[in-house]
Amino acid sequence: MARMGTDAAVDLARIRPAGPPDHRDAEFERRLASAFPVLHGLFHRLYGERDDALDALAGVVGDAAESWAERPADLRAADARREEDSAWYLSNRMLGGVCYVDRYAGDLAGVRARIPEFVELGLTYLHLMPLFAVPEGNSDGGYAVSSYRAVAPHLGTIDDLRALAAELRANGISLVLDFIFNHTASNHEWARKAVAGEPGHEDFYLIFPDRTMPDAYEKTVREIFPDDHPGSFVQLPDGRWIWATFHSFQWDLNYANPAVFRAMAGEMLFLANLGVDVLRMDAVAFIWKRLGTPCESLPEAHLLLQAFNAVLRIAAPSLLFKSEAIVHPDEVVEYLSLGECQLSYNPLQMALTWEALATRDPRMLQQALERRHAIPDGCAWVNYVRGHDDIGWTFADEDAAEFGIDGFDHRRFLNAFYVNRFPGSFARGVPFQENPRTGDARVAGTTASLAGIEAGDPHGVDRVLLAHAIALSTGGIPLIYLGDEVAQLNDYTYVDDPATADDSRWVNRPRYPAEAHARRHDASTPAGAVYSGLTRLIRVRREAPELAGGRLVPFDARHPTVLGYQRPGATDAAASVDTTVLCVANVGDAPATIDALTLSGFAPDAHELITDRRVTLDRGIVLEPCHVAWLRVRPAEAPPRF
Q1: Would you please indicate which residues are annotated as catalytic (active-site) residues?
Q2: What is the pLDDT of residues 504-547, one digit of tens each?
Q3: pTM of the model
Q4: Among 611, 609, 352, 626, which residue's Cα sits nearest to residue 462?
Q5: Residues forming beta bridges with residue 243, ordered by sequence position
Q6: What secondary structure letter does DSSP report for 17?
Q7: Chain centroid to CA 177
Q8: With contact defined as beta carbons under 8 Å apart, do 491 and 509 qualify?
Q9: Could you tell me which of 99, 23, 50 has the C-alpha nearest to residue 486?
């Protein structure tokens, strides 16, 4: 073993394979020369004190070279295209969909059969929920991975996944998969070898002989799933204790060992060469542990993400990372950068959209758009109305306090409202992990059930469309949980299956809505009304260049139930976008008038894009309950030109 030095060029010369440079791949050498100094510096910061750091780094470079040599020609071509168009994912034509393979299509072949439906909806991005091999029984919905190189047998094979990726790509749809890299299943090969103490794997996980170290760590580490096990450790049959942040069968990897980084980088490159375009980086906040800290969002977690990115820049440069960080709003944005995660879920906007619908008050959402929407150039939010998990009320208490709102009491109200325990509620959600002693809970449910369609509320369809209109127009990549586009309702049969009965989140993971999908063109049905309205919004967005990118300018509509913001489009003069789209949304149950004075900063003639009609702003505008307007406007001094 040899220690790393501080000079990247010297260390690269020490680890490069023998042979003259002209026998090497010129493109790989170009990428290596560009990215290696970054990777070397990150490795030095993470592992520079270890004697095995240089060997691990040499292994990473060798693995990257082998992966590049095996990278299919069409993926190399995609790398080149996206290098020329590095902002491809910021387009207003981007539209995401997400589903479970088995529940939505049966298997991977079934997903391929649904590609025409995806194209009809307008998808350019498809996130397939975890599909890797998992243990029998409970696998946390696929988030306990037994092998990153094997598909769950009931879904198909790796070859099926490779073929699906190719066909999606041919139809203009990028494949997105989860990268569960904080932990593996307890039956993963690495886990079995670590428990057995096999050389090279004994330090892959955090295993302790007694409770001394677990007790010390747990003084500052919070419980995530107390219903599953107390604390952050579970006991092995031989009496030792192993770190398990989430479920007892999900064992955390020890990234303080550089061999773990190398091993997981290899799995990442394998997925990249299958044709995956985006990896959802699961549980990013938890990947580094240090005694005396909460072991969440530590600086080393960011260094690890940057190091994984540097490996990609060498061997799979077009692959992107999407952050899944359900943390304090100030911390979410910390994971967003071109060198870390280029994309990130926007859990605050999602939660506050539902908060605004329940309270008929958009102030907290307006505040979030004004204060927390801006992110680094070149990065994008993934805006969603709901996901596969529960809804947690992730707003900051200090933000709520500015409106005289007590965060604890407000969360209790929202939980009660969305599980139909509040008088007059339109929602039919289900509590998740409810704690009767503390009142803590989260909410599960499909969009249609939460928005009022299940309850027969007259504004149910409008709320579904309003929520999606916000996600579609605030910038970034909008993401639809497939089934929501046809107003799919809660699936209460989850309680009949022992494998899902104890997890109420399965209420919002229904199977493919065949009947609703068959009625998607019948506007007299909720399925048809939602599908018609949503596809109209999608088409309009695709034709509105102002809605590309993520730049957002606040707008005060001066009405207690109206949310407002402006999308001025690209700042690049070459983009020739000289108009702004003014977005206004009435979350109230009564019509809302935005008066002429409030709109006087714009030229009087405007174009309402959703309805494709001219609007005269000097008379003010009226928004019907739970309705949205996207107005193409110009400054008051500019002559109208449409």
Answers
A1: 282, 324
A2: 999 999 999 999 999 999 999 999 999 999 999 999 999 999 99
A3: 0.94
A4: 626
A5: 233
A6: P
A7: 10
A8: yes
A9: 99
